[in-house]
Amino acid sequence: MSQKSSMSELAKKEQRTAYKLLIPTMLILLLVAFYPLAQVFVTSFTNKRFASSQKTEFVGLRNYRKLLGVTVKKLEPQVNPDTGKVKVDSETGEKVYKPAYEALPSEPFLYEKLFTVGFFGNKYVVGASDADFMSAIKNTLIYTIVAVTLETIIGLIIALTVNSNFKGRGAMRAIMLVPWAVITVVSAEIWAWMLEPNRMGLFNTVGDMLGITEGQINFLGDPSLQLPSLIAVDVWKTTPFMALLILAGLQLIPQSLYEAARVDGASKVRQFFTITLPLIKPAIGVALIFRTLDTLRAFGVFQVLLGDRVYSLATYNYFQLIGNREMGLASAIGVVIFIFIAIFAYAYIQGLGVDVE
């Protein structure tokens, strides 16, 4: 009993020592991270303007209501004044509705049309008090989910390849990091040249030479190709980073596990799903958190390639802060980005067991 008591006292002493050693780190975090974050939260509830002498006032949730406000308005069918009957399209046979107004009057904000939707024979127009912000959320989420998924799959394949024994493996590991080493703005400018909408661009030139296209594809001008083009740029640049983190996890797996599996007659596929994948889950989780954090804050690629034609959350934040000098509104956007990052990080930690393993 006395031995257990002494062990318990020793554990408590070690715990107290650990807490004391963490004090400097916590103070630094409070200074460089938590304090600025708290300031952003506080500013998001004000009407503060950037580089302005205007008096700052507390406005509560106004900034958030302006960003996230959505309204639904039922559209009334058009009626022929002569017959009193609802107008019907002669070609489609469908009812003709009154115009889906681009601006829907609603206090205290003006709502812009997002889209129209049919429901139980009725038609509704869905509007947002800030349609650009809603579009930025959509663009950022699509960009994040598709890019991170592709980077994880391709990165895993590359990591498994360079983790095997073959001649020139060291050189291959060094070469694969070249795209990651290129500065984001520089890589975006390189891709801007390759994506030129005429034969000055690499892809249009190659497509024309091979007879696949006419060399006039407007990658950055066609709305259906804009996000895929940005995703391609991000996948090219950051897949090596994912591969490197996953490779680090692969290196920690003892070879004795594979030897025992081979003795038991397990195939390569079975070894992957029963040994490799479960043991690299923490590494994949860390890689996903890092990459998701980066893509949710994507700025350089959007800004260089598309400017204000297509917004991400980060570029729209920049537009509100620098272009409109709406510091309070920009802070609210920053809080929304933080919330998205927290949700994704929590989902990864819970889903992949990063906190346990």
TrEMBL record:
Q: Tell me the Gene Ontology biological-process terms attached to this UniProt entry.
A: transmembrane transport
| Transmembrane spans | 21-42, 141-162, 174-194, 272-290, 328-349
Database matches in InterPro entries: MetI-like, MetI-like_sf
Residues of the signal peptide:
none
Q: Which residues form the ABC transmembrane type-1 domain?
A: 137-348
Q: Which CDD domains does this UniProt record tie to the protein? A: TM_PBP2 (cd06261)
One cellular component (GO) term of this entry: plasma membrane
Main subcellular localisation: membrane
UniProt similarity note: Belongs to the binding-protein-dependent transport system permease family.
- What's the protein called, per UniProt? Trehalose/maltose transport system permease protein
User: Whose protein is this, by species?
Assistant: Halanaerobacter jeridensis
